[in-house]
Amino acid sequence: ALITMRQLLDHAAENDYALPAFNVNNLEYIQAVMRAADATDSPVILQASRGARAYAGDAFLRHLILGAAEEYPHIPICLHLDHGDQPSTCISAITNGFTSVMMDGSLLADGKTVASYDYNVDVTAEVVKIAHAAGVSVEGELGCLGNLETGAGDKEDGHGFEGKLSREELLTDPDQALDFVSRTGVDALAVAIGTSHGAYKFTREPDGEILSIETIAKINKKLPNTHLVMHGSSSVPKDLQDLFNAYGGKMKPTWGVPVSEIQKAIPLGVRKVNIDTDLRLAMTGTIRKNFTENPENFDPRNYLKPATALMTEVCKERFEAFRTAGKA
Ligand code: G3H
Ligand code: 13P
Ligand code: ZN
User: Fold this and answer.
1) Which of 10, 31, 119, 181 could connect to 115 by a Cys-Cys bridge, CB 3.0–4.6 Å?
2) How far is CA 272 from CA 178, 230, 265, in A?
C-alpha cells in the first residue's frame, strides 16, 4: 500500500534507523528497489524529481508505483516528489498520487539563485498547508548544498546556486532550523552539511572539514524530534567508478559520502538518505560492460537484466547499512 513519508519516518525514529530514498525514472529502477526491499524486508521511499516526471510522465510513474504496490503488498511504499521548485509543482504531484512532496525553497524557482530566508519560509508553509489538508507529507530544505572546499554549488545536474558561498552559508544554522520548522510545520528537514548532488562531491576522502556530521549533531540538539534528511548522499563507491571506467566511461577520480559517515548520522536524527548517483552508475556501468562484451546482442533485456541486478545489490547494501532491513 502507498503510505506517507511521515508514517515511515516516525517509525524510523522510534526504532532508530534511516530509509534510503532512491530516485527512480523507469521500470527497471523501481524493480531494483522493490526486489531489494523484498529480499531484505524493508519499507521503501521511491522519489521522482521534476526531471523524472518529465522523462516518464506522471501517469506512467503513478501506475508503475501502483504496480509495485500490487506486486509487493507486504511492503509499505511512499511516493515522494524530490526537489519541488515551487508550490504549483508540489500541488500537481499531490493531484497525481504522490503521498509526500519536497518544497525546496532554498533556491528560487530558477534553481540557481539563493533564496531569502523569508521566501523559503513562505513557500514552504504554503505547501505544508495544502499538503497536510490532502494527507500528504512535506520535506523542506534549509541551507544550500555545496562544496565546503571550493564554495561552489552543485551545477552538474541542473540545480545548485551560481557563484560561491562561505562556509557559514553552506552549513544549515541550528537556530534558524528551529525557527524554520516551527514556522513551516514541515514533516522532515533537509540540511546542508557539505554534500552536493552528482558524482563529484569531494576531491579526497571526506573528513569533518568538508563533511560536517557535527552540524547534524548541533541541529539534532535543537530539534530532537525533527526528522532530518541528507541529500547528495550517494557513496560513489570505487568499484562502481572502476566498472564504469573499465568499459570506456570517463569519470575523474572522486569521493562520495562514505556509508560509515551516514551511519554516524542516523543516531543524530537522520531518517531519510537520498541516493540517485549510485544507481545511475550501477546501471550505466553494467550496460557499458554488456555492450563491450556482447557486441552481437540487440535484445535490450539482455543488458537491462544485469543492470537491474546490480542496482538491486546496491539497494540491498544500503537497506542493510541503514538498518532499514527487517522493518517493513
Ligand atoms: O536531486 C537530484 C536528483 O539526483 C535528481 O536528478 O533532476 O536529474 O532527475 P534529476
Ligand atoms: P546523489 O546525487 O548523491 O545520489 O543525491 C541524490 C539526491 O540528493 C536527490 O535529491
Ligand atoms: Zn537532493
Assistant:
1) 119
2) 19, 6, 10
Class of domain 5-321 as given by CATH: alpha beta
Q: List the catalytic residue out of 82, 85, 154, 173.
A: 82
Domain boundaries, the chain: 5-321
User: Could you report the per-residue pLDDT of 257-290, keeping only the tens digit for each?
Assistant: 999 999 999 999 999 999 999 999 999 999 999 9
Give ipTM to 2 decimals: 0.98
Is 41 part of the annotated catalytic residue set?
no
CA atoms within 13 A on the CB side of 39: 16
Distance 196 CA to ligand 3 centre (A): 8
Which ligand 2 atom minimizes the distance to the CA of 83? 10
Give the tens place of pLDDT for each residue, 76-100.
999 999 999 999 999 999 999 999 9
User: Measured on CA atoms in the order 168, 262, 264, 18, is the torsion positive or negative?
Assistant: positive
Cα of 145 to ligand 1 centre, how many Å?
13
